[in-house]
Amino acid sequence: MWQRVESLQIADRCVIATDSDEVADAVRPHGAEAFLTSANHPSGTDRVAEVASRREFRDFDAIVNVQGDEPFVSESALRGAVRQVTSGSFPLGTAAARGSEEILDEPNVVKVVAADDGRAMYFSRAAIPFLRDAAEAPLRSTRVWQHIGVYAYARDALARWVSLPPHPLERIERLEQLRPLAAGLAMGVALVDEPPTVGVDTLDDLVRANANWKDLNGRI
């Protein structure tokens, strides 16, 4: 995945943050830059923050986190999330795509609702927005947004995020992005006009991902 992100030339430097020697040993022979982190981080953002605090990265004002379970994240999602921060609109950024109604009952698919200015209001594994009256089903279908696992942070916002203890909502839903939202940090959501990417959350997802990986690498 690092090769694909690097080829998009979205970031000035692309590194892998992991607590696994196995992962680091697997990617370094292929030219990847990997940093071992503590194994005690409660979330991927905490792991990213450890690497971002290293001396060689302290001059970077914006940091991007592409999660390992999102190997097929698109260029538009990455650029959209980054633009939320680099434009000065929000201290934090992420992305979403319009989803089908079927995802509403799938807890492995994270949904997001956003304000008119693009600010994330809530993320959930539950069905949001909830349909109370059947007559509003056509309207609800336009507001089903599937979260894409990419984050961008202004440096100060990243430091603030990881200074906070894991929030009860974060622990209940197992969604790290609820921590900064609960503390009042604004996160912009870039809505990308494309089918949602397929994350790797289940064994079936892994089978599909492995089937697609060879073809993807052949086009890099």
Structural overview:
34% of the residues lie in helices and 20% in strands. The chain has 220 residues and is an alpha/beta fold. The protein has one domain: Spore Coat Polysaccharide Biosynthesis Protein SpsA, Chain A (Alpha-Beta Complex). The strands form two sheets. Strands 3, 4, 5, 6, 7 and 8 form a six-stranded mixed sheet that branches. A hairpin with a 5-residue loop joins strand 5 and strand 6 (120-124). The radius of gyration is 17 Å and the shape is globular. The N and C termini lie close together (10 Å).
Give me the CATH superfamily: Spore Coat Polysaccharide Biosynthesis Protein SpsA, Chain A
Shape: globular
Unreliable stretches (pLDDT < 50, length at least 5) are none
Terminal CA distance reads 10 Å
CATH fold field value: Spore Coat Polysaccharide Biosynthesis Protein SpsA, Chain A
* Secondary structure: helix percent: 25-40%
β-sheet strand percentage:
15-25%
CATH class: Alpha Beta
Domains counted in the coordinates: how many?
1
Query: How many individual β-strands?
Result: 8
Radius of gyration from the CA trace? 17 Å
CATH architecture descriptor name? Alpha-Beta Complex
Largest sheet: 6 strands, mixed
Order of helices and strands: HEHEHEHEEEHEHHHEH
pLDDT averaged residue by residue: 89
Structural class: alpha/beta
Number of helices: 9
